Amino acid sequence: MSVLSEQGLVVPRLAAVSPAGEEFALRRWELTDLPLVREASTDPYIPLITTVPPEYSREEGEAFVHRQWARAERGTGYPFVVERRSDARAVGTVGLWTRDVPEGRATLGYWISPRCRGAGAAGAALRAVADWARRDLRIPRLQLFVEPWNTASCRTAERAGFVREGLLRSWQEIGGERKDMLLYARTDPV
What we know:
two-stranded antiparallel ribbon; alpha+beta; 190 residues
């Protein structure tokens, strides 16, 4: 089954649960993932760079999940929960944002809950979605942005096949301040 995005891209849907390496899987967001949203809202950084509510309530958590569904339904983005296969625990998210597909590029983003970092979930999920976007969607350029201080995220991007292209000065507002961002891209042949 496929969906037509607002940009006119025919996007094949991933299976209900798709592998992301040997230890993790990707799936759509569900309301049962509210504990993951609650945990992410306590992180000092995740709410600054995402739409995760900085003050968690059940209503705000449900609104976050509904936003993920709406993005997929409109074809403007494809957010996935990263799930640990051993116990089916939701540990984070990875998304492909397709606003710039008409220009031949898409942006990826990811976060892992604080208690689940360091186990390779972000790298496995990022690689799986990037491979899908290049192979099935045939998007020529995938990119992501990382703050220079976030060395763990830089390593994750590099392990998933992204190459650092440069520093974008005062690129994005985060927490009320303009921040520099490192630009990473993956343009390997499809």
